[in-house]
TrEMBL record:
Part of the tripartite ATP-independent periplasmic (TRAP) transport system. The keyword Disulfide bond does not apply. This is C4-dicarboxylate ABC transporter permease. Pfam families: DctM (PF06808).
Length: 723
């Protein structure tokens, strides 16, 4: 892969900004750019400090986070798209090139965000009885937050939040089942602004306490070279096999996704290497783009970092983050296996070769040059699996990134990790006498590097810029989480979630009755059909909602509405949460708004819609697996009543079913498949995937004639003089 064929880092970043609205920042005049960069650096430094040396009081911590996030959005996002890409000159009505109104909104947002922490000592007396000042500041907070969210993530989420507030106010005028007593504006503001059920609720708390830190860690880990190490290792492992670059894409995206958690970032970063190579090898452009984008959507479901929704599960379910990691492991593997199987069959069908030894990196050289970059991830996992909080693990991971990035000396890297491991073993990792010197040492490396020479000064600038970029990645997520708090607040205020649950289950029951009128009742049960169609309807809503709102917001909304629905059927909460999470992520490769697929298509010069359709087909593992773990929860490992026989049966059946379905889609298994064979193994895949030994054996039996014929065809083709 020559440099001429690779997208530059700048091109990749511009693509990310083009397709990810959360990264679309307007250009700034130099003075304002330095101000914004300083504020972003301060935001990252605030979270880094509190993660290691103690969080502030809950309301204060969230209020400071909100003040930074919402205030900064008005400075870095323009009100109109036409103004987003042009550098405006400074005028008295546009200081620093930013309209005066945006400066006013930024100041208003900061004041409204800090008002609740300011009156905290009196808050217990204000809740339920807000003063006129409370209502004014709350209104200001809601208005600025809605506008900030519109700028940061687009229209859909603000429209949903505004519509629900209108619904809460005009409750008596609502039709039928949606009618409720209604609430005055004062009561709405009280509930959303002064209580922990609204803007300052769990979603904002999770972003301010967990998500921000892991976004920052991912950016810094990429800066010090961990992402490049993962891609090089993927090349060493998978590059020599048939269709090598496509398999590098899958392995690389899986590894890179562990530290990224962003579908679009994965696509443009890993895809800058793999998409051109796939096209050169002979893959169609749309298929190359689809492979990369589908594999990249696995970043949000791949432990240990995952996406923001994983940390929300910790709060919503009240379980340890390590339990979420364990639950996510097998379903994530199934997703990547599904993509891998289809890529393999397509490569064999087209006779595509792997990469030669000259085209691949030397594995020993890769490890020799990049092993130090693994230390931050090792430090994070060591702390995390030792029972400490996720944000403390992120703190030590970030510290390790700083030390590795600034020192570049193997002895220092080894010494740091040994000291940290001993501190964990002796339980002193949280002691100030241990953590303060370690942080001061990292800062000292930065000062020494700055004074030493230009090369080390560049390293210091790169690490500092990582703090700035990490905050950039997180501000839109923070605004979206606070707006989702409005949605949750209205749902709890009006009880509309239970009404929606009733409508969904009623519709599913009606569809089930329609099926029973055609199919004999002895084969299917009324309750079973109702559950199945409830799951189908929930999945469809998740995908549709995901077309307009970020994955995190989609997850929170659907959990608020769908979790009570699925609970009616006895589905465990962790299973319900993973179900909506998976289908929310799937929206990134589901037309008509498949942002990750469109980013890949842009890099490949392919048709976006065709790329999206192919990407959805490649994501069959992610489509099927949520239904598998609903009916076979043992796949998630941490569910109640877990046992190894159920786990092994469910997992093996799923693997076989995904393999059969992949071969059916590709038209190739061990040899080319006839039309009737594709249909037969495609049908056989469904009972095979279904949890349970009986159904799996039935599917295998149905597919066995095709498998036997494939084996014979492969042997004939391999025999000399035959085929």
């Amino acid at each position: 892969m020559t440099n001429a064929n690779l997208h530059t880092v700048t091109e990749s970043r511009s693509l990310e900004e083009k397709f990810d609205p959360e990264m679309r920042f307007r250009p700034l005049q130099p003075g304002v750019a330095w101000l914004v960069a300083g504020l972003l650096f301060a935001l990252s430094s605030f979270h880094y400090y509190t993660a290691g040396f103690g969080l502030l009081r809950e309301t204060t911590h969230r209020g400071i986070h909100m003040a930074f996030v919402v205030g900064l959005i008005f400075l870095v996002f323009a009100a109109r798209k036409v103004d987003q890409d042009r550098l405006a000159p400074s005028r008295w009505w546009r200081p620093g090139g930013i309209p005066l109104l945006d400066w006013i909104l930024a100041v208003a947002a900061v004041a409204a965000s800090l008002y609740v922490p300011w009156i905290f000592s009196e808050l217990a007396f204000r809740v339920g009885n807000p003063t006129p000042t409370d209502v004014l500041m709350g209104t200001l907070m809601i208005v600025t937050l809605i506008e900030a969210t519109r700028r940061g993530v687009g229209w859909p989420l603000p429209i949903i939040a505004t519509g629900l507030m209108v619904y809460a106010y005009f409750g008596p005028s609502m039709p039928g089942i949606f009618q409720h007593p209604g609430a005055s504006w004062s009561n709405i503001v009280n509930h959303l602004y002064l209580t922990s059920q609204g803007i300052y609720g769990i979603p904002l708390g999770v972003v301010a306490t967990y998500v921000f830190h892991y976004v920052l860690f991912g950016v810094l880990a990429t800066r010090i070279g961990l992402g490049k190490l993962f891609i090089d290792l993927a090349s060493c492992v998978a590059g020599r096999f048939a269709g090598g670059p496509a398999k590098i894409s899958i392995f690389g995206s899986a590894l890179f996704g562990m530290i990224s958690g962003s579908s679009i970032a994965n696509t443009v970063t890993v895809g800058s290497l793999t998409i051109p190579a796939m096209i050169r090898l002979g893959y169609p452009r749309h298929f190359a783009a689809a492979v990369e984008s589908t594999a990249s959507t696995g970043g949000q479901i791949t432990p240990p970092i995952m996406g923001a929704a994983a940390f929300l599960m910790v709060e919503f379910l009240g379980i340890a983050y390590t339990s979420v990691i364990l639950a996510a492991a097998v379903p994530a593997f199934m997703h990547f296996y599904g993509v891998f199987a289809q890529v393999h069959f397509e490569a064999k069908k087209a006779g595509l070769r792997g990469l030669t030894a000259a085209e691949l990196p030397n594995p020993l050289k890769v490890l020799r040059e990049g092993w130090q970059t693994l230390m931050p991830l090792a430090a994070l996992l060591t702390i995390l699996f030792s029972g400490y909080t996720p944000y403390l693990a992120a703190f030590w991971g970030i510290t390790a990134c700083m030390i590795v990035g600034l020192a570049r000396v193997p002895a220092i890297t080894v010494g740091y990790f040994v000291a940290l491991a001993m501190a964990v073993a002796f339980g002193v990792v949280t002691q100030l006498w241990f953590s303060v010197p370690m942080v001061l040492f990292a800062i000292g490396l930065g000062v020494a590097g700055w004074l030493r020479d230009d090369r080390h000064k560049a390293l210091v600038i790169d690490v500092a810029d990582g703090f700035v970029v990490g905050a950039k990645y997180a501000i839109s997520v923070g605004a979206a989480a606070a707006t989702v708090g409005i949605i949750i607040g209205i749902v709890t205020l009006t009880g509309v979630g239970f009404k929606i649950s009733y409508i969904v289950t009623s519709l599913a029951a009606q569809i089930g009755q329609g099926v029973l009128s055609v199919v004999p009742g002895e084969l299917l049960s009324d309750k079973g059909l109702t559950l199945f169609f409830t799951l189908v309807l929930t999945a469809i809503v998740c995908i549709l909602l995901g077309c307009g709102v970020p994955t995190t917001a989609n997850y929170i909304i659907m959990v608020t509405v769908a979790a009570p629905t699925l609970a009616l059927f006895g589905i465990e909460p962790v299973v319900a949460h993973f179900f909506v999470f998976y289908y929310g992520v799937l929206a990134d490769v589901t037309p008509p708004v498949a942002l990750a697929a469109y980013a890949g298509a842009s890099m490949a010069g392919a048709d976006p819609f065709r790329t999206g359709n192919t990407a959805f087909r490649l994501a069959l593992g992610k489509v099927l697996v949520p239904f598998v773990f609903v009916y076979g929860p043992a796949m998630l490992i941490v569910t109640q009543g877990f046992n190894w026989p159920d786990f092994l049966t469910t997992t093996a059946g799923c693997l076989i079913g995904i393999t059969l379905l992949s071969a059916a889609f590709a038209g190739y298994g061990l040899a080319p498949l006839a039309g009737w064979e594709r249909w037969l193994i495609g049908i056989a895949a469904l009972p095979t995937v279904a949890p349970g030994l009986t159904s799996s054996l039935a599917g295998v039996a149905l597919a066995s004639p095709v498998v036997l014929r494939q084996i014979l065809a492969m042997r004939r083709a391999a025999a000399p003089g035959l085929g």
